[in-house]
Amino acid sequence: MDVRVQEQDFDISAEIAAMRSGNPKIGAIASFVGVVRDINEGDSVATMSLEHYPGMTEKSIAAIITEARGRWEVLDALVIHRVGTLKPTDQIVLVIVASTHRGDAFAACEFIMDYLKTRAPFWKKEITPQGGRWVDARVTDDRAAQRWERDDKQGK
User: Fold this and answer.
1) Exposed / middle / buried, residue 39 (Cβ in 10 Å: 0-12, 13-18, 19+)
2) SS3 content of the chain, % helix, strand, coil (to 5)
3) Coil, strand, or helix at residue 61?
4) What is d(CA 37, CA 53) in angstroms, rounded to the nearest whole number?
5) Which pLDDT score, from 0 to 100, does residue 154 have?
6) Are 49 and 84 contacting, i.e. CB atoms less than 8 angstroms apart?
7) Number of Cβ atoms within 10 Å of the Cβ of 40
8) What is the pLDDT along the chain (156 residues), one digit of tens a residue?
9) Closest alpha carbon to 15 in 77, 87, 90
10) Which helix (H) or strand (E) holds 55?
11) Do the beta carbons of residue 36 and residue 83 sit within 8 Å?
12) Listed residue (71, 80, 67) closest to 32, CA to CA
């Protein structure tokens, strides 16, 4: 399990290769890459600045991964989240999950990403032609995270 909050970009191929290296138990790897869009809520986005609270952020992300490991067979997981000023087309986040089977890898990857959007302590500010604005979690992000809570209550 690895959590990194960093300013520098990441190489998804290198990260997957490192995770797979020498582990014959891995039968599936699922990944997600989040990218800065050039438009949000109908407005052009020139840049997005991401801030975090060092130490607390990594601990929060590690807890999300631990929860995923309690729900699915996860052999390894990696979350890299960038901070600083990013522009459209820049990569923001990488989630990689390794498992013995694809179902566990897909579900755990989606769960981790859904919870990152709603529970990880990041503050995002977009710069648009109208000025700067802080970005809140979307209603759809909250619904996605709530789905996992419903699944948990129903024994899924």
Assistant:
1) exposed
2) 35, 35, 30
3) helix
4) 24
5) 47
6) yes
7) 17
8) 999 999 999 999 999 999 999 899 999 999 999 999 998 888 899 999 999 999 999 999 999 999 999 999 999 999 999 999 999 999 999 999 999 999 999 999 999 999 998 888 999 999 888 888 888 766 565 565 677 775 664 455
9) 77
10) none
11) no
12) 80
| Amino acid at residue number 92 | I
Q: Say which DSSP state 54 is in.
A: T
List residues bridging with 128 in a β-sheet: 131
Q: What is the pLDDT of residue 40?
A: 85
Choose among 79, 68, 90, 81: nearest CA to 123.
81
Q: Which residue(s) pair with 85 in the sheet? A: 49
pTM score? 0.88
